[in-house]
Design a protein that fits this description.
By secondary structure, this protein is mostly helical. Helix 1 packs antiparallel against helix 4. The longest helix has 29 residues. The radius of gyration is 30 Å and the shape is rod-shaped.
């Protein structure tokens, strides 16, 4: 098994487990946004969206830059590399397992040659 920092993956997958946070990530993939711009499509208060942003920030999915009272967020392109490595490892692992299973099934299904049994002959009595 590959060695990944459990807490890093836990934070990443937890952050992405929420549909609002996934929506924020989708928005940030199109470009940087302020907290107000992020809150608008979700009809949330700035405080509520800030909590989501904080979770994404803790997971290193986004980077927040403060300029006075304005908080601008942008996506961290490096963030998904840990998850990508984790998923790739298990994709390969399961592909190998399924290939081995398919090979086993082919052996099980392949018809076995029938043995011809000759009847036993009894010794003749004279």
């Amino acid at each position: 098994m590959v060695n990944y920092l459990s807490s890093e993956l836990d934070l990443l997958f937890y952050a992405l487990s929420n549909p609002t946070r996934r929506g924020i990530v989708d928005m940030l993939n199109k470009g940087a946004c302020t907290i107000g711009e992020l809150a608008e499509p979700f009809h949330m208060s700035l405080a509520a969206i800030s909590k989501h942003v904080k979770i994404l920030e803790d997971a290193k999915i986004l980077i927040r830059k403060k300029s006075g009272r304005v908080h601008e967020c942008k996506i961290n392109p490096e963030a998904m590399k840990t998850a990508e490595g984790y998923v790739q490892f298990y994709t390969q692992f399961w592909a190998n397992q399924l290939d081995a299973f398919a090979d086993d099934l082919e052996v099980e299904i392949k018809p076995k040659p029938k043995l011809e049994l000759k009847p036993k002959t009894k010794p003749r009595r004279n």
